[in-house]
Each structure stands twice: as C-alpha cells, then as structure tokens.
Amino acid sequence: MQHFINVILPIPLEKLFTYSITKAEANFLKIGMRVAVPFGKSKIHTALVAEIHTTAPTVYEAKEIHQILDDDPIVTELQIKHWSWVASYYMCSIGEVFRSAVPGAFLLESETLILKNPESIVQEDALTDEEFLVFEALERQSMLKVQEIAAIIDKKNVLPILKRLLEKNVILTKEEVYQQYKPKLVRYVKLGEKYQSEDALGALLDSLSRAPKQSKVILSLFQLQGRNQKKTTVKELEEKSESSASIIKTLIDKEILEDFFVRTDRVVFDAAKKPSLLKELNEYQEKALQDIEASFAEKKVTLLHGVTSSGKTEVYVKLIADCLEKGQQALYLLPEIALTTQLIARLQNYFGQQVAVFHSKYTVHERVEVWNNVLTNKSKAQIVIGARSSLFLPFSNLGLIIVDEEHESSFKQYDPAPRYHARDSAIVLANFSNCNILLGSATPSIESFYNVKQQKYGYAQINRRFGDVLMPEIELVDIKELTRKKRMKGHFSERLLQGITAAVEEGEQVILFQNRRGFAPIVECTTCGHSPQCPNCDVSLTYHQYKKQMRCHYCSYHMALQQSCLACGMATLNTKGFGTEQVEQELQQIMPKLRIGRMDLDTTRGKHAYEKIITSFEKHELDVLVGTQMLTKGLDFGNVSLVGIMNADNLLNFPDFRAHERSYQLLAQVSGRAGRAKKRGKVLIQTYNPYHQILQQISANDYEGMYTDQINERREFKYPPLHRIIKITFKHRDYGKVEDASAWFAKSLRVSFADNVLGPEFPAVSRIRNQYLKNIVLKMKKDQPLGKTKAYVRKIERSFDTIGQFKGVRVIYNVDYI
Ligand code: ADP
Ligand code: ZN
C-alpha cells in the first residue's frame, strides 16, 4: 500500500498538495508536523501536514518529500480546522493563513535569505560538521539563499540543518532582521560570585580599607540592595556612592563586582514579587459577573457593555482567575494600540509569571518561545495577552477568550491576506474549542449589539463608573459662529482656552484630541489653487512643520517644503486644515508656560517613545497631551479633568457606512479619559455642526439612540449586520486595465446578483503606491447561502483569470468590510 500526505504550502494555492511518503514516514508523521517538500521547478518549501492517507492523487504524480522537520506537531488539528474556516470565510487560501499565523522562522524555503546572527556567540565545537560548513559560509558571505547554502554543502535537504542552527541562535532569516529592533538593555551590578559568603565579604572589606572609594561603592551597593536583594543598576550605584564609572569598572575587572544586562522592553515579572489579591468587586461588577457566568452556562457568546472606567478589567480578571483554576488557558485579545504596559503590568500584578505577551514588535525568537509555551501548555503562558494574530497560537486547552474593546476597527486586518476580523474569528475559535468568550466595550459595535438584541449573544451591563464618579459632562462648542465673528484664537475657542487654564490652575491635566497628525493636512497655493500631490498616490501631501517636509501618509514619499508654488511660481502657499503638530504649537504660543506633549504616529515611532510619553504624562511632567486616536485606548490617567476635541467634523464626514458609528465610539472613548479617578470630568467638543445627530447622542450619552439610528440606516441601505457584503478590489498599475477588469467582473456578477452589485467605483484614494484601485461591493441577504455565493464569485474569478487582457490584475476580497 502506498502512503500519502496532503500538505498546506505557505502560498496562495486553492488546494492542499499531495506528496508520497514511505511506510516508515507514515508511521512517524502526525498532522501538524512540518516537512520539507519540493515545489514547482526547483523550489523547496516548508509545508504543514494536514492529512495522512493512502489515496493517490489522480491528476498528477505525487512527488516524495525531502524530509520531516519535526519530532512532534507544532500545530494542532484544531488550529488547522480554524485556519480552514478563516480561509473559506475570508476568501483566501489556508496557506496564506498558515504563513501569517506562524513565526517566520518556522517557514524556511529556498528563497529565504539566511544570515549570521550578529549577536550570538557561537561555540564552534557545539556544531556538527554540516552546521559548521554553513556557519563558515556565512562568515565569508554575509547573506545566502537557502538554495545557495544547499549547493555549498552539496545537500538537497538543508532545511533540518538550518532549523537546528536557528534553534541554536547561530543564524537569522532575513525577515527576522527586518523585524529586529535593538532591545534596550539596562546594565545592573551585583557582588561577584566569590564574595557571596559573609567571610569572604569581611575579608574583602578589610582588603579594601586602603581604597576608600572602592569600599564606599561596595557599602553603597549593600544599602541600595537592602534586605530583599533589590536589583541595582550601575547608574544607581554610581550616584549613590558618588563614584565614577572607572572605579566601578576597576571593581568589575577585579571580579569583585559583576555586571549583567537586562532587557527593559520585555515585560518580565519579578519572580520574587508576590501577586496581589484580586480586588473585591462592587455590586454592579458582581451583578455583571453573575450575568456573564449565567450566559456562559448557556454556551453563549457574551457582551459586557460597561461605560468607560466602570471596572470591566477587574471583571475580566475574575473570569481569568476562574479559568486558570480549572487548569485552562486564557486569551486576552486587544487592539494593537491598546497593548500598553499599563494593562500588562496590571495583569502581571495579579497573575505574575503566568502572563505571556504576544506582540508583532517582539523578535521572532520571543514569538517562537511563546508559541512553544502555549503549545505545551506551560504555566508561563497560561494567559496570553496579544493583538489579533495571537488568535492563531496553538492553544491546547483554551478555556476563555476575552476580546477587549471589541468595537475597535484595528481587529480587522486589511493587508495582506488573510483579511480577517479577529473578533469574529475568535468567536469561531471559541466555538471550535468549546470555550467561553466575552466581548467587552463601552461602545459595542453595531454588529455585537444587534446580536444581543436578537438574543443570539448574552449580555451584561455596568452603567456607572467605579467609585460612583459621574460620567463626564459633555459640552458642544459651536465654532462656526465664533469663526464668523473672528473670535477664535487659531483653532481654539475661548471656551476651550478657559477650560484649559482652569484645569491647569487646579493642578489637573488636559487631553486634546485632533484626528490628524502632521502640522496641516495640505498646503495650497492661494493664487492658483495647486496643492502638492504624492507622485505615487492619489492624495495631497501633508505638511510636517518639525521636519519642514511634505509627506505622503500612504507611501511615505516626502519632499522638502517648497518656498513657492510648483505650478505657478508664486510665493503664496498657505496651509489648510490642521493637525496635532499645529495644535501643540498654537497652544504653546498662547500659553507659553504650559508643558505640552504630543502623541501621534510621528512622535511614537521608536519602540519606547509611546511608553515614554505616557509615563511622563502619568508622572505629571506634562500639563497637556495632544494626540490622535492613540489617546483613546485603554489608558487610565487619574488626573485628567478636561478633554478637548479640536474638531469633531472631520470624523463625521468619512466615506464609510460605519463612519457615524466610529465617530460615536471614538468620541465616547476619548471623553472617557476625563475624570476617571476623583471628580467629574468635562469634555469640550468644538464643531461647526453642533446639531449633528451623533454629537447630540454623544452629549446625552445615548448609545441606544445611536444604535437605533444606525440599524435603521443599515437596513435601508443594505449593510451589515442586516445584510452581508463582500468588497472586491481590483489593483494594477495600468488605469485602463483596472477599468476594464472591474467592469467585466461587475457585469458577470450582475448576471446573478443584479441590483445587489454596486460599482465598480474608484475609492476616495484611487491610487496608492502607483497602483490604481477600483471596488465592487456585493450585497447579500442574510439568508442567502454564503458558501454558495462565494463559490460562485470564485467561479467568475477563474474565468477572469483565463482572460489574457486582465493578466496581472490583482483581485482582493474583503468580507464584511469596506
Ligand atoms: P474599564 O476597563 O471599565 O475602563 P477599569 O477596570 O480600568 O475600567 O477600572 C477603572 C478604575 O477603577 C481603575 O483604576 C481600577 O483599578 C479601579 N477599580 C475598578 N474596579 C475596582 C474594584 N472592584 N476595587 C477597587 N478598584 C477598582
Ligand atoms: Zn504616496
């Protein structure tokens, strides 16, 4: 009997591919192990075993595999099942899910670039002959493709060797290098090994009696460390002992002191520290907890709808504790932006070393570590906090998923495939794993709230803030009138300036929100009306004053600010609109004494920049923090009494059926930063349009009203959650091709779906990175079988692919989202 495996290749193939294996291999292999396989003319890929069977493929002859790469599965069968769902629902291949789910180091293939790990100290005698050959080759040539290495050591099956070298930290893949950031190391000191005993120490101090400076260093070290052996940094020691770096170096050279480095960005929990007891819930939290548990007992997805600062996190903590008690794993999903050390520290406080963080900014090695700890159900990763991709970890005993800030749009991945929504995929994962799932938000998505209304989801509510702090008072400031009467100072109304002054005088802090980064969105010539455009994208360039640059926010193209208009030559360039940078500057001019900080993509680029700004605001080194949406999420500042929204209108005028919902959520979240701890906070919203329905609803804290309006609109215009949508995007450098391809596709769709096909239409930004884009939106009734519809669309795509004229046009699907 012949044996075969079907494997998942990490490329966009629609089907699994079959390879033949020997009987011995069949006995050894398990689903979820990796194998090295040949594919195409001469490529090697890392593939994942999905099925083991004895049926030969009918249309091609199965090739043999090169080699088995694992001793045990690295992926569970449940994951494969979940990935297939993701692939089929979001219309991509399971290979694409595989590729994005596992750390890059798991996916060696012939084109992968390999280089030496510059940070590792290699013990050459710990390497096998073959490993050494590779190592040596990389000493001479900085970077080699996997296939080149195969040629050098004259071996086809080079992946196992590279896999071992990766594990030994000797090499890196090029992808890892891109992802590498320099970890921030802090230098600590301790007493040398030899002087740990009291006798040895006594003798040491005696011997140093003639070196008073050195003995002062040693004594200072004792004082700093105290009884509980607190870790001491070199800097602390230098300051405390009033000595110099050179004296400490002398002591280190003499091996009296020993220095060591600890990375500060990896949130390591001090093992010696005792976890704190869980907080006692108040009656409202307690009630919510009971409702959640009752709903879990009915196996229902459950929504916790709790206003900002109502203490949702403490409720999550209770549920996590219960889950751990049962020996199960918990997953805490957050939008990337909310993944702050504030929250991580809070959870570590309760659960100590059981908390693992899975983050795209972490190195591949760290991600591999978390992967393996989750797979083997280690206590070190009982709780995983992570952004959307942590959904794809190999949980073996998942008991609870929490999707915090479930309404957040960053749970949706737009590029590349899989273009999935993490909340919705988490619900399916929970279903497959038979585990509980809680969605939490102060401003639930229309979808989730609709499911509650339909009784599909369970519901729990907390509608007052913890400690009975009142919800912030919201005031709309009509700047249309003020602008007309020329009573604005720059972009500030008198009302807002008064508010800032009053708060700062009380020793309180202020947050100012502006939904745009940069100094001013565009520069316009007042003579001819020209404004500089990005040569690659269909957008105007944005002016960044700090660097005196014009930048494209889509492709990072930039150029120096021109003195005069490029079109007409007149020196009449003027800025139009305004961003965070300008808000900061104007305010500084009006109130020179104010300590102002700014938080947006530009100021938080470095790895620690974000934390730094937050910390200095927390420590009250700043009076005012100006920022973009980054300010909205999961931050808990006790001393903020005023939140100012510079301009609410540019949020509302966004071409997306979710724009109003989003505006409500964003404004409610930003407002939620006001008055969390002590007294009632105040929110001032500047707008040209104070009678806008959404602004009225925000000021009345009328979530239900907003929901009802939105649901009616969606019903009328056939949008989710009442209808389903698929957006199909066509992309190519050639304008004409995009036009023709999308028109052909729309026509084919109309044969079956008639009026439910919208477009093709150019999006608001119709060219990005020199690629033209055009969209078709397909709307479906809820009861229309989704699988069939998708299969039909795919069929059209297959005919499309055979038309030579459309060659190279990319077809991209986004399900449920526009
Ligand atoms: P949310 O997540 O709903 O915005 P948090 O969980 O951050 O609210 O709670 C707001 C504040 O109230 C936090 O500072 C938190 O420590 C405090 N808090 C919440 N619940 C309790 C409790 N049961 N006992 C003591 N403090 C609490
Ligand atoms: Zn651009």
Supply the key terms.
818 residues, alpha/beta, GIY-YIG endonuclease, 6 domains, 7-stranded parallel beta sheet, 6-stranded mixed beta sheet, 27 helices, 35 strands, binds adenosine-5'-diphosphate, binds zinc ion, 3'-5' DNA helicase activity, DNA replication
CATH topology of the largest domain: Rossmann fold
CATH C-level class of the largest domain is Alpha Beta
The count of domains is 6
Largest sheet, strands/sense/barrel: 7 strands, parallel
Question: What is the CATH homologous superfamily assignment of the largest domain?
Answer: P-loop containing nucleotide triphosphate hydrolases
Record field, number of beta strands: 35
Looking at how many chains there are and whether they match, the oligomeric state comes to single chain
Distance between the termini: 51 Å
Distinct ligands, ions and cofactors found in the model: adenosine-5'-diphosphate, zinc ion
Our Rg estimate from Cα atoms comes to 30 Å
